[in-house]
Amino acid sequence: MTRGASGIADLRPLGRAREQRAWYWYDWANSAYVTTIATVLLAPYLISVAEQAACGYVGSDIRSCDADLQVLGLSIAPGALPSYLVTFSTLLSAFLLPMVGAIADRTANKKGLLAGLAWTGSAFAALLFFCAGGNWQIGAVAVIGANLCLGASTVVNDAILPLISEEHERDRVSSRGWAWGYLGGGLLLVANLGLVLGHESLGLDKALAVRISMLSAAVWWAAFTVIPFLKLSNHPVEHPDPVRGGLVRASFGQLWITLKDLPRYPTALTFLLAYLFFNDGIQTVIASASTYGEKELGFSTSVLIGTILLVQFVAIAGALAFGKAAARWGAKRAILTGLLGWILVVTVALVVPEKALVPFLALAVGIGLVQGGTQALARSYFSLFIPRGREAEFYSFYHALDRGTSWFGTLTFGLVYQFTGSYRPAIFALVVFFVVGGALLLRVDTARGIREAAQ
């Protein structure tokens, strides 16, 4: 503990440490929705509900029906419904998140805004419990609302990071938060997979077990958000540009000012461009890994479930290891090392033999090691280039641009598969995103970016 010139102990590091521990819990809270619902259970369950709506509830004969849903005069295949809903909510959030960021920067009660968005999102997620029979519309409302609130709350949560940590602490704090998220989401996922896979021994039908599991993720998200809401402090607004009007009007005015000012921060813009490429590659690998494992390598669902859990828990160690690497060599070098790891992952995926379990599991370990570390350090590294008082606005652009361009990777993956008929060149094609992202990241001058933010 340090002492000031007056001899009074400086208690600020203790206060920051207390808030940091509280902040970790939001990653723990929202990861339950991401893992249990968005990643594993939502798409198969919602497809089955949509099939029942399209064909009529005909029990075991449902598989013989190939009818489409009729929505606003359009025919939608039940199997495509989850993808359409996620795409719609993602693109909508790209427009809404900058507005959320502008509002967040003009309120001292960021923890209240964070909790309000989280609890609203968890309420939408809880609606999935009532999505049964052929009521796919309830699921559609739940998915869109939960995804929008998750994105908005993430913007506010990321904006709190620079307020509760000094520059030299942020890589460690961000990495630990990411690790907590993997741990919390992984633990609940294990419990829910046990419930779904063992539903018969518990006297439940599979659909009810899935609905209970999704409800548990919504409750988990809401319950653990209480901790940051109670333990975080309100921080004074530090905004350089006075804008007249009430909160909403002033926020829109500030958003316009920030948009005009962005060219004054070329380092931040260069990093954002690099992030768009390499993060799109990361997200596409994660989204396509199960398809690659099942369709190209021929693994069963049980093997894929085990692999998902392996990645989840290895990512905890990966996030913590990258945090330590950043403390020693700097965040930029650590991220570049992670991108080299991703290049190795997609290269190995090109040649993994069919049904070769050990190489496939080694590939999963590689993904786990680099997945959390690169994303956690990107979050903390970007904070160095944000001017004081505009944290939420800049993080809103960080997430909005990501969502607005997140289809590049999946489009590349789909096109290469369509032209080649194989998932191997499709997943290897994603190497372009890591190479281009890494090349752009090499152009980022950390010291210059800090100076630009300080101006």
Structural features, described:
This protein folds into two domains: 21-235 and 247-260, MFS general substrate transporter like domains (Growth Hormone, Chain: A, Up-down Bundle); 265-455, MFS general substrate transporter like domains (Growth Hormone, Chain: A, Up-down Bundle), CATH 1.20.1250. It has 455 residues and is mostly helical. It has helices spanning 12-55, 81-104, 110-126, 136-160, 170-197, 206-231, 247-261, 266-296, 301-329, 331-349, 357-382, 391-404, 407-420, 423-428, 431-442, 446-454; strands spanning 69-71, 74-76. The longest helix is centred in the first third of the chain and has 44 residues, at 12-55. It has 16 helices and two strands. It has a two-stranded antiparallel ribbon with strand order 1-2. Helix 3 runs antiparallel to helix 4 (136-160) and helix 8 packs antiparallel against helix 15 (431-442). The mean pLDDT is 86. InterPro entries: Atg22-like, ATG22/LtaA_families, MFS_dom, MFS_trans_sf. It is found in: Cell membrane. Its main location: membrane.
The percentage helix is over 70%
Q: Which secondary-structure class do the elements indicate?
A: mainly alpha
What proportion strand?
under 5%
What is the typical, i.e. mean, pLDDT? Answer: 86
Provide the fold topology.
Elements: H1 12-55, E1 69-71, E2 74-76, H2 81-104, H3 110-126, H4 136-160, H5 170-197, H6 206-231, H7 247-261, H8 266-296, H9 301-329, H10 331-349, H11 357-382, H12 391-404, H13 407-420, H14 423-428, H15 431-442, H16 446-454
Antiparallel strand pairs: 1-2
